[in-house]
Amino acid sequence: MQPDYQGFVSVAKSALKGRIYTDYLRRFAYGTDASCYRYVPQVVVRAKNEKEICQLFKWSLRFNVPLSFRAAGTSLSGQACSEGVLVLANSYWQDMKFVFNPSDSESKHKKASSRNSMSADSESPQSIWLSCGVIGSDANAALKPFGKKIGPDPATINNAMIGGIFSNNSSGMCCGVKQNSYNTIKSVRVILHDGFVLDTSDEKNLHTFMRTHKGMVDSLLALREQILADSKLKALIKRKFAIKNTTGYSLNALLDFSDIKDILNHIFIGAEGTLGFVSRVEYECVEDYAFKACALLFYENLLGASEAVKILAHNEDIVSAAEMMDYGCLDAVSHLEGIPEIIFRAKKGNCALLVQLEDSTKEGLESKVSRIKSALKSAPSLFGEEFSYDSKQQDSWWKIRKGLLPISASTRRSGSTVITEDICFETESFAPGMEKITTLFEKYHFEGIIFGHALSGNVHFIITPLLGDDTERENFARFMDDMVDMVVSLGGSTKAEHGTGRMMAPFVEKEWGKKAYALNRRIKEIFDAKNLINPDVIICDDNTIHLKNLKPANAIEDFINQCMECGFCEKVCPSKDLTLTPRQRIAVRREIARLEELEAKGLLEDKITDSVIQESAQDMRQSTQSLSPNSALESSQESLHESSPNPAQIDSQSSYAHSFMDTLKSNANMIVEKGTKDIASKIAKHQTHAPLTQKEILKELKKGYAYFGVQTCATCSMCASLCPLEIDTAKIASKLKREQAGFVAKRVANNLATHLPRTMKWGRNAIKVANFGSKYLGAGIAKSLSKGAHKVFSTPIVPTFMPKPNTYMLESKTSPENKSSVIYFSTCINRMFAPSVKMPDKRPIQEVFENVCRKAGVNVLYPQNLENLCCGKAFKDYQKPSDELAYETYKELVISASEEKLDIVCDHSACTYELLKRVEEFAKHSGISIKLYDMPQYIAQVLLPKLSIAPLEENIGLYMMCATKKGKWSDTLYQVAKACIKGEIIIHQKTECCGFAGNKGFTTPELNESALKEFKAFYEGLGDKKISHGYGSSSTCEIGLSEQSGFGWQNLIYLVDKCSQ
User: Fold this and answer.
1) Is the distance from CB of 293 to CB of 356 less than 8 angstroms?
2) Which of 67, 410, 446, 652 has the fewest CB atoms nearer than 10 Å to its CB?
3) Angstrom distances, CA of residue 1018 to CA of 598, 985, 1015, 1040
């Protein structure tokens, strides 16, 4: 029976609403993972709960459609790819619960979060329940107050989710074999192919399973008996799992346990989603030692380092980690900021070991350090064995090690593909194994780098072949064959912790032998007789699958070309649950570049290349060519994000009446783009589509990218903060906006910037109109009506916390008694906005700042010509007016501050960050710099020491906007808040960027809503610590924060004024 995707989609779309995607752009983007493979799923589904998973299994069987499950997509072996239906199980699967007493019922388990109110001396949980979408580091953050953590610690723990960590049996730096998923699992909740929800933590459920699935139980126990009856097979399994091994299924579960509960707990570990859907796991909590010491040791070569590894392995009871890095690794990181000086002393051929020891006491740690230093005397390092107890130094070393894969991959040749391998040897075979890898590099002319978890005998290496070249492709194929032969000959594992996937599926039998491989196949048959759960992973009949569907690597813009799609960036992206993540934006950009290159060469095919779901091609083409406002609005209600905009054309007069300054310039392009379609709504409307030719795919990708890649990118650049290469994906949107700005749009932007006072007046009038509507219709009704109009006409929305127009007169405030002065550069946005009528303090920020300075004895001086000044950020999509405004502001501030060399303070953090960058640039040419403070910095460093503070007895919310994090002064906000209150400062740690993004909160409100979707529930769930005030340093962000939380957020200066005397 052929898969019936049309039938699957027809029944699924009504149940899943807008969470089923068949448009090519999202299928391509959501199909992207960290592996070297490119599979485009035929359907993508975002599942919310177990009921939906059960339905998906039912439809899978009915329509013979294969399902593959994906959490974070950080897997490297191709196990999270799909050609069928890809099921995303991440953002909706976030539950965590502490288990203090295993005998307690589920209702007594305490809900956990990455912010815990329990003190460190509270009773410690024995285990933790984690849904499959919980990020590993979030689980550890929840356990940190108890001095606990989960056992598995993959390098991707800041991004990898529990579903993948468990299903790959991921280990990592410190956990080795002893604390991996296999050895720390307590219970598992899995949905089987027939929809049965198996929960091994529930004895009643387990008994039901044994009755209703007796055949499955009997088959597993029969396999166990088969192993026990074969001494050679028993010995093989014991030996293979004595070291790290994720090749094939967990056969050791059948040998190590006789109770079916224990077998079930362990058989799904490392199964890579091929036996069922892992909904939740329960991990035993392990110690997270408070005291750590690290040493970066250098050796003459890999052989010398291997001798040290033997010594460290002999002392594994006190050594937490020993990470190997060859010279290629050291060379790859040498350009990074903050790199240790000692690395520059290393010469070609040298290598390094990063060693970590830990203990619960300082004395215990010092004793371990002394013992290891003594043991290592027989294998001395090049530059000594000095251990560091400095956590910042340790973090910098570990950051390098954890980022080695993407950092090393960034140095690859343009057009090459990143291939990551992951093998393991017994300790005595470690040195010979390393030597043979190097020999294989030379034999097949690959320049690879070698690193890994030396303490476990686990070696990673990277090669970057040009797979478009026939010779290199053939060399890669032969390299893989030889590598497998070499590892098997040394009794090692061809996959230690990355999982079998598609990369090693053809070699499972060679590594395990016929008998053990037959057991692997039988396990698959027991749980998935129809081969509909993640097919071709682990068990595959195609012996060349590891060489197929490898990612093409077309060159794109230099600032993103180094990306290897690892996914480290995704955690902080505000649009990750709305449209695309940074790596997905880059992946789609690459595909557009690939197709454009084919088009330029005349090689773009007209024949159908994407025959997925059959529908009339003519119907599809007509729908993309004409979409009325009414049909757009109707279709947007079917989409995942009901507030997705319909960017229809608007005329210039109405835009002046309905938008603010930022909105005016951002909508300028729309003035001349007649007949602009709503790509997002179009895609949602047509959830089944025609087979596409390459030309149609290119057209769809380019059209869709306007919304998915550009409009919904917050351009906050937070992605760069987690990327080991500091790739700033926001530059894509900025570049494309500037390139696509039309002549009229540029004229409008220039006019608005040149006549800034008039623009500000229009902005205040527009705000006045919006407030009039809110007052007489009611804030809720006004918002609803504006959202309806926004979907049809792309007019800005009117939030319930709509600012008032700022009419406060900005006049310098001085007193002869004051001994100091400050230049107050109040930003254009704060000169236009005054607090909403719903805010707790309705005074304009300028009045509040003046009052605090009065108390502190500081004169407030406004720059001359202030109404004409702007940092340029509001016009960032238009180079000329942005540069001119920034330079005029710089000149005016230089003049204002020069006579007495006065400090300058700015009242919006995003503008401060922008101006600081511009000032540095201008100062290089003029030689004249200025001292510019963001308002929280000025409060902390200048005002607080001059004020008498009476801390308030209350809890508050605090938000550090992205600019303060990029500028590295976010801690200052906490410092100020701490000085002002006696209560608790409550921060929603998961919000890295609120997504309001200047004007996007008005023009693309769904971005702010998605970025803060957990915000309200978080603050409402504080119990007796519930708060009613929040503080930040960005008036625009504070609109969105207020809107999504339901209570007012204002600048920290309001808090300082409230508690100062």
Assistant:
1) yes
2) 652
3) 49, 14, 5, 15
Question: Is the distance from CB of 581 to CB of 573 less than 8 angstroms?
Answer: yes
Same domain membership, residue 328 and residue 253: no
Answer left, alpha or beta for residue 351, where phi above 0 means left and psi between -120 and 50 means alpha: beta
Q: What is the 8-class DSSP label of residue 125?
A: P
Instruction: Name the residue with tokens 């960036």.
Output: 569
Q: In what order do the strands lie in the sheet with 985-986?
A: 985-986, 956-958, 1030-1032, 1049-1051
The domain in which residue 345 lies consists of 291-498
Q: How confident is the model at residue 611 (pLDDT cuts 50, 70, 90)?
A: low
Write down which residue in 899, 918, 945 finishes a domain.
945
> Rounded CA gap, 744 and 751, in Å?
10
Tokens 């039309």 identify what position?
742
3-class secondary-structure state, position 197: strand
- Among candidates 640, 842, 843, 669, which has minimal Cα distance to 747? 669
| Number of helices and strands in the chain (H, E) | 45, 30
Q: For the beta carbon of residue 1046, count every other beta carbon within 10 angstroms.
A: 14
Average pLDDT over residues 156-174: 94
Burial 776-802 (b: 16+ CB within 10 A, else e): eeebeebbeebbeebbbbbbbbbbbbb
State the sign of the Cα–Cα–Cα–Cα dihedral 611, 616, 621, 625: negative
Amino acid in position 98: F
* pTM of the entire predicted model: 0.91
> Following CA atoms 618, 620, 622, 628 in sequence, which dihedral angle do they give, to the nearest 10 degrees?
160
Q: Around Cβ 443, how many Cβ atoms within 10 Å?
A: 12
Alpha-carbon gap, residue 39 to 32, rounded angstroms: 8
pLDDT at 689: 56
* 421 and 508 in a common domain: no
912 and 1047, same domain (yes or no): no
Residues 8 and 331: their CA atoms lie apart, in Å, by 51
Alpha-carbon distance of 304 to 146, in angstroms, equals: 40
Decide if 68 contacts 273 (C-beta within 8 A).
Answer: yes
In tens, the pLDDT along 340-398 reads 888 999 999 999 999 999 999 999 999 999 999 999 999 999 999 999 999 989 988 88
Query: Tell me, what amino acid is at 844?
Result: P
In the chain, how many domains are there? 4
Question: Could you give the 3-state DSSP secondary structure of residue 1061?
Answer: coil
CA distance 212 to 206: 10
Per the rule left: phi > 0, alpha: psi between -120 and 50, beta: everything else, 416 is beta
CB 73, CB 136: distance < 8 Å: no
We report the CATH number of the domain holding residue 852 as 3.40.50
Is 687 domain-assigned?
Answer: no
Mean pLDDT of 789-811: 96
Main-chain phi, psi angles of 666, to 5 degrees: -70, -25
CATH classification at residue 298? 3.40.462.10
pLDDT digits (tens, 9 = 90+) for 1012-1040: 999 999 999 998 888 999 999 999 999 99
Query: Are both 232 and 94 inside the same structural domain?
Result: yes
Distance CA 293, CA 393 (A): 10
Q: Distance (Å, rounded) from C-alpha 90 to C-alpha 48? A: 9
Of 945, 968, 999, which residue constitutes the final position of a domain?
945
CB count in 10 Å sphere of residue 1 = 6
Cα gap 35→566, rounded to integer Å: 8
Contact of 988 with 1019, CB cutoff 8 Å: yes
Does 1004 map to a domain? yes
How would you label 508-536 residue by residue, b for 16+ Cβ within 10 Å and e otherwise? bbbbbeeebbebbeebbebbbeeebbbbb
In this structure, the answer to whether residues 368 and 318 fall within a common structural domain is: yes
On the question of pLDDT at 628 being above 50, the answer is no
